[in-house]
Write the structure tokens for this entry.
Amino acid sequence: MELKRSQELFEEAKRYLPGGVDSPVRAFKAVGGTPPFITRGKGSRIFDADGNEYIDYVCSWGPLILGHSHPRVIDAIKQAAENGTTFGASTELEITLAKMVTTAMPSIEMLRFVSSGTEATMSALRLARAFTGRDKIIKFAGGYHGHSDGLLVKGGSGLATLGLPDSPGVPKSYTLNTLVAPYNDIEAVAQLLHKYSGEIAGVIVEPIAANMGVIPPQPGFLESLRQLTIDNDVLLIFDEVITGFRVAYGGAQSVFKITPDITCLGKIIGGGLPVGAYGGRRDIMEMIAPVGPVYQAGTLSGNPLAMTAGIETLKVLSQPGNYERLEKTSAKMEKGIAEAAVSLNCRLRISRFASLLTVFFTDNQLVDFESVSGADTAKFSWFFHRLLENGIYWPPSQYEAAFISMAHSDEDIQKTIEIIGMALEHLKD
Ligand code: KE4
């Protein structure tokens, strides 16, 4: 796989951008090598500056559940752009997308659009603290909720990838109010709620963890979390930036039939353009300015192009049969990898929830960040590069999810399984 042009671009980019990237996980630091510079994407494929073609399982880290450059999304954006790109004033588009989101997720009676998942969770925490009058928040080790100061504690995603569970530059005082429990450990949450009774504003959780690799909730974990937060008068915040409209049209909350107090969204609702959102009970949301005293604002919040891309994406997604087809494709992928691993006597764990999937090079029971931290990241890096050089663009980190889209064909999946089988051939024990 020739990467000459990408290498040139990477070297030039490093002069202007830290690590040559605008988001750390793109730099391939954990897996080494040169990250391909992408020029275009179409359906399940992306193409790099050297003309190489890849089947893409990063899908921009989740937004592109329809695949790249879906014709309806592109046409809608083109038309909207003819009318202008941003007004700094309200548009009907925001109402249209808000209606679609609140219909899909009835726990969200009212919401505010922002421009990233980070803004969504940061604002949700401020709101929870204001609503309850309390300062402390519980998060889970390996949970990643964007890069706002108070949440950069035992974070997953790029923090775990780079071995930076916390980050310099975050004052100790900020993190004193961030309590951490192991994912799936309801007893630990109960102990924190007891120890800090009356001090905790909320619990923020990825209902299906996807930033330490994919770790589904153990049976009863989310239900117990909901009951504990009700019993302790603490808000439950579902971070559905990844799972929203991914695992079902109604998100994880519709799968587990749990009503959070606040939900954070991003990725898919922007259809590939920058969008985040936080929303929930009306009595909580009406604390947000200008109705209430909690301030939050954004120049490009509710951007007309981003709203248009999100609307078109949800219109396509809401058509019957889509999620059933995506489930079949994803199950075929999981089955193919599992069969290859067994036939090659390769010790690995495949963790999948709907179209989110991670191949872990460990045989630990995968329940929390500690259990995934023992995965063999050297094996993962080797696996990653064997796939990349054979035209499979897999997430460049053991602590990320692979995203399967509605654009991935049976042929794509079959080809991917064959190439994974070839890679595992060299990794068998
Ligand atoms: P953004 O600020 O990156 O739009 O969203 C932050 C965020 C919040 N909550 C969850 C559950 C998330 O997964 C994310 C961001 N996801 C990572 C991938 N695991 C984004 C990729 C990146 O950082 O480049």
Observations:
- Residues 23, 25, 61, 116-118, 121, 144-146, 157-158, 206, 211, 239, 241-242, 266, 276, 400 surround KE4 (CB under 6 Å).
- The mean pLDDT is 96.
- The longest strand covers residues 200-205.
- The chain has 15 helices and 14 strands.
